Amino acid sequence: MTITIETPDQPDVIALIAELDAYQDSLYPPESRHALDLASLKQPNVLFAVARDGMGAAIGCCALVFRPDFGEIKRLYVNPCGRGHGIAKKLLALLEARVIDANCQLLMLETGPYQPEALALYAVAGYQRRGPFADYTNDPLSVFMQKHIAA
């Protein structure tokens, strides 16, 4: 398995993002989904990490959006066939290392209460719950978290 920074506009990555969208559509109504579209993921302030299996197929992804005062984790997903191997943790670790390189000291994210695996992953990785940030508003279907990154 490899994890590298890539562009999200590759056919197998687009398919992976579509899987993520379908999964989130099954859990949350549209007004409670805050996903970035493909055009947004291609912006210069975004790093997009892709995990690939031994055959080169995309099996996981995660984006880091650099904001003026913090970085935001978006679109973390691992295909069910790749789960249980620490891929999500490795994707997160790669992007956290890039935050340190960019001298950014705070990461934030929004996830949902119906994703216990994601909540557990973020908690183990040191993220703590917080209130809404940036343009987010209070929503019972949103969980906001943050982590201070030491350089």
From TrEMBL:
<keyword id="KW-0808">Transferase</keyword>
<feature type="domain" description="N-acetyltransferase">
    <location>
        <begin position="3"/>
        <end position="150"/>
    </location>
</feature>
<dbReference type="Pfam" id="PF00583">
    <property type="entry name" value="Acetyltransf_1"/>
</dbReference>
<protein>
    <submittedName>
        <fullName>GNAT family N-acetyltransferase</fullName>
    </submittedName>
</protein>
<dbReference type="InterPro" id="IPR000182">
    <property type="entry name" value="GNAT_dom"/>
</dbReference>
<dbReference type="InterPro" id="IPR016181">
    <property type="entry name" value="Acyl_CoA_acyltransferase"/>
</dbReference>
<keyword id="KW-0012">Acyltransferase</keyword>
<dbReference type="InterPro" id="IPR050832">
    <property type="entry name" value="Bact_Acetyltransf"/>
</dbReference>
